[in-house]
Amino acid sequence: MPQTDPEMNIRINPYVIAPLVQAESISFFTGLTMRWFRDVFCEEEKLLAEKLGIDAYSLLEKMAERVPVGANNVIPIFSDAMHFKSWYHAAPSFVNLSIDPEKCNKPVLFRALEENAAIVSSYNLDQVEKFSKVKLSSIVFAGGGAKGKLWSQILADVTGLTVNVPIVKEATALGCAIAAGVGIGIYSSLAEAGKKLVKFERQHTPNSEHHKLYQQHKKQWYEVYKKQRQLVDDGLTTSLWKAPGIN
After folding, report:
1. pLDDT at 1 > cutoff 80
2. Cis peptide bond N-terminal to 107, omega within 30
3. What's this protein's family per the entry (predicted)?
4. What Rg value do the Cα atoms of the chain yield, rounded?
5. What does the pLDDT average to over 8-18?
6. How many helices, marked H, and strands, marked E, lie in the chain?
7. Most CB contacts within 10 A, which of 19, 114, 144, 208?
8. Would you state the pLDDT for residue 183?
9. Left (φ > 0), alpha (ψ -120 to 50) or beta: where does 160 sit?
10. How far apart are CA 79 and CA 76, in angstroms?
């Protein structure tokens, strides 16, 4: 594997086990965007979830399950795919909204956000595959978002890959525990510790028909996002985030 990306889209980090490297492609503020939507627009759902004794995101996912694939063509504009050479994002927005409350409501917007996060992740995976020449058949979905069964399935459908969800979803903390276990001699290697400690609770296989539809939405999002970035370039809107040194 080359040590740098000639297109400067993804970041290459040395791994703790030489000569391996980590190809890093980041989606920005995915969890923060979901929290923003929940806290700003879903006070009623938060109260109902509290009464029912469930998580507000679980309630919103239940509502979003009834929304068709593609979320009625609502296009969220938040994080871009990673372009390390010119690292900035468009202004946060929703594009292609409808004033028909049946076609554009909280469940639709919530599903659109989950679909969009999966689309951005899919673009990032494409970039890693192109750089590494490694063809993926499955991925691991960890972190807070992995608690959502709908989001996990959407990720499988968008990427066309099998999605494995671990029991312990805080992957960074588990990785630290694995390294510590090796360091104090409980395990002989990181590989041994990983095999013993990383277990999966469920698996999501992609729906081929949904995947075809998402490929169309993926192309549409890419073209719309380019135009939204141009508005930032023209000084008409404010970027979600810019790397230091980007004017």
Report:
1. no
2. no
3. Belongs to the FGGY kinase family.
4. 19
5. 88
6. 8, 7
7. 114
8. 97
9. left
10. 9
Return the structure tokens found at 217: 């939405």
Residue 197 counted as domain residue:
yes
For residue 137, is it within any domain?
A: yes
Pairing of strands 162-166, 138-140: parallel
The C-alpha atoms of residue 91 and residue 162 are separated, in whole angstroms, by 32
Residue 5 lies in a domain: no
- In order of 81, 184, 212, 217, the CA distances from 71 in angstroms are 20, 50, 15, 10
- Put simply, whether the predicted model's pTM sits higher than 0.70 gets the answer yes
* Residue 239 lies inside a defined structural domain of this protein: no
Taking the alpha carbons at both ends of the chain, their separation in whole angstroms is 33
The residue with tokens 């939507």 is 37
Structure-token match 């230091």, residue found = 244
How high is the pLDDT of residue 21? 87
DSSP symbols for 70-103: TGGG-EEE-PPPP-GGG-B-PPPEEES--S-TTT
- Give me the pLDDT at residue 2, please: 59
Mean pLDDT of 212-226: 99
CATH at 183: 3.30.420.40
At 247 the pLDDT is 78
Phi-psi region at 118: left, alpha or beta (left = phi > 0; alpha = psi -120 to 50): alpha
Q: What is the pLDDT of residue 137?
A: 97
Q: Say whether pLDDT at 208 is over 60.
A: yes
Q: Where are the alpha helices (DSSP H) in the chain?
A: 30-41, 43-52, 56-64, 106-132, 149-159, 171-183, 190-197, 208-233
Q: How many domains does the chain have?
A: 1
Which tokens sit at 134? Answer: 């490694």
Q: Whole-number mean pLDDT of the chain?
A: 96
User: How many other CB atoms are found less than 10 A from the CB of residue 233?
Assistant: 12
